Amino acid sequence: MAGGAVKATAFLQRPPLILPHRHPVNHLNVRRRFAGANSINLTNSFACRCTTTNAASGVLTIAPLEVNTIKETCSKWEWRGYTINYFKYQGQNGQKSNPPLLLVHGFGASVAHWRRNIPTLAQTSTVYAIDLLGFGASDKPIGFAYTMETWAQLILDFLEEIVQKPTVLVGNSVGSLACVIAAADAQNSLVKGLVLLNCAGGMNNKAIVDDWRIKLLFPLLWFIDFLLKQKGIASFIFERVRQRESLRNILLSVYGNKDSVDDDLIEGTST
């Protein structure tokens, strides 16, 4: 994201507990065959160009969107009985010939975390950003079985029902992983390409990793999974992280540009 790579993020509201991403052998083989036979290419490369100049530094910049502006102009989409929040933005110079972009946030984040990226990306493409089920202003159903497959299917359904064009998926952290699964599972040409930012891998790699040295860590990894499924332990962790000062410290530790960690960013995390 703008202002430095984001390795992790946090939240003020309690996020959903994610179930481990499991790979039935036959399903995994189908994905491998499909992905191998259907390579994803961005046939026409395009660059994002800024159009305004910072007089003090001489650097071309575009002002980020205000969090309140994003909140006020978001749209709602009904998916399987749940309300999903999303944002659509196109700059004045946006070229309709370029594929649209769908931005998918990471764990604990929301549409507002892309506020610095959206105006620049919109110079060349129509930009969509979505709050995954359980995050941001989307519904947060209690007791729902949150899985990576669920989010991947949400992404595919969004492309089919809302965007309705071949789209480049841009994901951060857990959002990247959901985008990869969506691309592998896509049964049509709506996924044009992938952009992965700090792609998460720990949730789904235990079933397919072959390195014996990593396999030695399996007992520890499964133990961590077990602990995170215990509501008391998970609640304790979430309560510690959701404190505003803790959130600020976490964001400062993962943002390359510390100036990007402002009140708007923290506010965007809490929506």
From TrEMBL:
GO MF annotations, alphabetized: hydrolase activity
Keyword terms of this UniProt record: Hydrolase
AB hydrolase-1 domain segment(s): 99-225
Alphabetical list of InterPro entries matching this protein: AB_hydrolase_1, AB_hydrolase_fold
SUPFAM superfamilies found in the cross-reference section: alpha/beta-Hydrolases (SSF53474)
Transmembrane segments: none
This protein's name: Putative alpha/Beta hydrolase fold protein
